[in-house]
Amino acid sequence: MIIYSVTVTIEAAIEREWLDWMQRVHVPDVLRTGCFAGATIYRPVEPKSDEPTYVIQYRCSSLAEYQRYRDDFAPALQKQHSDRFSGRFCASRQILQET
Q1: Using alpha carbons only, what angle is made at residue 80 by residues 74 and 81, rounded to the nearest 5 degrees?
Q2: Is the dihedral of CA 90, 20, 52, 41 positive or negative?
Q3: What is the pLDDT of residues 42-94, one digit of tens each?
């Protein structure tokens, strides 16, 4: 099992709009690529942050499936997010493998 984990810190003023868009549009669009078996959005409890932070974890069966997403779908989907929330968020990504 591979986890594609995306941590996003956003401006408090857009938190509700961002979360709504992620739940209704972005995460479903990512899942529609067929590369992932599911996704969960988390709000970290500790450590506390001054700005809203979320972790979205997408689950896929293999590194090859993640790489297919990265190569074929990620650029366009990430551009949609960046265009909509430009300058109002900071994101980092991590690939985790179950042992």
Answers
A1: 90
A2: negative
A3: 999 998 888 999 999 999 999 999 999 999 999 999 999 999 999 999 999 99
Q: For residue 46, what are its two tokens?
A: 């500790």
CA dist., res. 5 & res. 59, Å (int): 9
Q: At what angle do helices 74-85 and 63-72 cross, to 10 degrees?
A: 60
**Omega prior to 28 cis, within 30 of 0:** no
The answer to whether 41 and 59 have CB atoms below 8 angstroms apart is no
Q: How far is CA 14 from CA 24, 37, 45, in A?
A: 15, 29, 19
Tell me the C-alpha distance between 4 and 95, whole Å.
5
Name the 3-class secondary structure at 54.
Answer: strand
Overall CATH class of domain 2-97: alpha beta
State the amino acid at position 90 in one-letter form. C
Residues 83, 92: Cα–Cα separation, whole Å:
17
